[in-house]
Design a protein that fits this description.
The protein is of the alpha+beta class and 273 residues long. The protein contains 9 helices and 18 strands. The protein has a 5-stranded antiparallel β-sheet with strand order 3-2-13-12-11, with no helix packed on it. A 5-stranded antiparallel β-sheet has the order 4-5-6-7-10, with no helix packed on it.
Length: 273
C-alpha cells in the first residue's frame, strides 16, 4: 500500500462528486476517520471533530475554535460556513447535514504538500494529515488513534467456532502484526483482529502491533527487512518463540479463522520447533 498525500486525497475525493451542499439536499453519512488534525493560527485544536463524506465528497469540521463549523468541498475548492442547527449527530457516531446546511462562503482553500489551509475571520486555519503510529503498540493505542478502528471492530462478527477453539489454546501464542496506519487495507481489516483480541481476553493468545512509517521509509525499516515482510498488514504467529505461520492477503477477511488453522498445524502443535 502506498501513502497518498492529504492534498492528493482531497483531489481524488472530487472525482465521483455528487450534488453540492448548497443545492438544497441533505448530506448524510459523514464519518470521523481520525485522519486529520486542525490548527488555528499555529495552535493545535485537539477537540476539533473532522468528518469525511466520501460519497459527496466533502470534509466537515466541527469546532468552537472558529465562528462557525465549516464545510470543505474539494470539487469546487471552497470553504463554507455551516449552520449549527443543520448538524444532526446520529446514534452510530456519524453526522448528517440537513438540507441547505451552508450559510455563506468563506473562500477557497489552498494546498501545500500535505497541508490544506484557508483563512477565516483573519485566522489561518490548517488541516494536516495525522502522523502515523510508529513502533510497538497496544490495541488501545490503535483505537485511540482513529475512531474508524473502533467503528469497524464493533461491527465485525468473528466466527464463533474459530473463537471457541482459540480460547482453548493451551500453549502461549503471540501474534505480532506489522501495519501502517496510513494503509487503507490495514484500516479496513486490522480492526477485525482488534475485535478478535477483545473476544480472547484471558486466553493464552496475546497480540502486539508494530506500526511502520509511511513509504518509502516503511519498506526500508529494519523490522520489515528482518522479517521479510512484503506488504501490510502482515500477522506473524509465534508459538514457543518460533514462527509457525502468517496472516496475509485475503486471510484478513477472517483473521480468527486463519489463526485457528495455523495453530492446528503440526508445527504449531510441536511448539514451533
Amino acid at each position: 500500500m502506498t501513502h497518498k498525500s492529504f492534498a492528493l486525497a482531497l483531489a481524488l475525493l472530487a472525482l465521483p462528486a455528487l450534488s453540492h451542499a448548497q443545492g438544497g439536499s441533505a448530506l448524510v453519512g459523514f464519518q470521523n476517520h481520525g485522519d486529520y488534525l486542525l490548527s488555528v493560527d499555529g495552535k493545535p485544536v485537539p477537540a476539533a471533530e473532522i468528518y469525511k463524506n466520501e460519497r459527496a465528497p466533502a470534509i466537515l469540521v466541527l469546532t468552537t475554535a472558529l465562528p462557525t463549523h465549516v464545510l470543505l468541498t474539494p470539487r469546487a475548492g471552497t470553504v463554507e460556513k455551516v449552520n449549527v442547527m443543520k448538524v444532526a449527530r446520529q446514534p452510530d457516531g456519524s453526522v448528517n447535514l440537513l438540507a441547505s446546511p451552508t450559510i455563506g462562503l468563506i473562500g477557497k482553500f489552498q494546498t501545500q504538500g500535505e497541508n490544506v489551509s484557508f483563512t477565516y475571520d483573519n485566522r489561518k486555519v490548517v488541516l494536516t494529515a495525522k502522523p502515523p503510529l510508529v513502533g510497538l503498540q497496544k490495541a488501545a493505542a490503535l483505537k485511540g488513534y482513529s475512531p474508524e478502528y473502533v467503528r469497524i471492530a464493533n461491527a465485525y462478527k468473528p466466527n464463533p467456532l474459530a473463537l471457541a477453539d482459540l480460547k482453548k489454546e493451551a500453549q502461549p501464542v503471540t501474534v505480532r502484526v506489522l501495519f501502517g496506519s496510513w494503509c487503507p487495507h490495514c484500516r479496513t481489516h486490522l480492526p477485525y483482529l482488534l475485535r478478535v483480541e477483545d473476544e480472547l481476553k484471558g486466553s493464552k493468545i496475546k497480540f502486539e502491533y508494530f506500526g511502520l512509517p509511511r513509504p518509502p521509509q516503511a519498506w526500508e525499516h529494519p523490522e520489515v527487512k528482518r522479517l521479510g515482510v512484503n506488504g501490510v498488514p502482515t500477522g506473524i504467529v509465534y508459538v514457543g518463540g518460533k514462527e509457525v505461520g502468517r496472516i496475509l492477503g485475503e486471510a484478513w477477511s477472517t483473521p480468527e479463522v486463519i489463526l485457528n488453522k495455523i495453530l492446528h498445524t503440526d508445527q504449531a502443535k510441536k511448539g514451533g520447533r
